[in-house]
Amino acid sequence: MEKPNMRNYYAIKVVGGQEINVALMLEERIKTNNIKGIYAIIVPPNLKGYVVLEAEGLHIVKPLIAGIRNARGLAQGLLPRDEILKIVSRKTVGPTVKPGDVVEVISGPFRGTQAQVIRVEEAKGEVVLNILESAFPLQVTVPLDQIKVSKR
Predict the structure, then answer these.
(1) In what order do the strands lie in the sheet with 114-121?
(2) Residues 6 or more apart from 63 whose CB is under 8 A from it?
(3) Which domains, ranges and CATH numbers included, belong to the chain?
(4) Where is the KOW domain?
């Protein structure tokens, strides 16, 4: 059920692994042909084989994808807006820690050791730890999902 002059989300089937290439070709075609009515090209990181277009209608999307290499056609129906928001929203991974917290490493080569948080790199999803049980200062970087907070 397409709504006129509304932003709808269309899933384009794509050859697996070619999502970025198809998105770039779509962008180039939109720019060179000065196509109006396309608002976004979304390449979902966890949805292989699809590129999502935010557009006014099917009458704009179908001619746009015609002849694009590695584009296999449109998926049936529209994607709901809340599904798109789930796909593109950033998810927090692991516990929330601050520098100075004492944590326990729960997996990896340092499993079971106590450590103090030196620095949190949220963009990478990692923390830099100072291992407390070593004889000399030993700093290691581990993913956030490999630690558990012991003391704050």
Answers:
(1) 139-143, 126-131, 114-121, 102-105, 147-151
(2) none
(3) 8-88 (3.30.70.940), 102-151 (2.30.30.30)
(4) 99-128
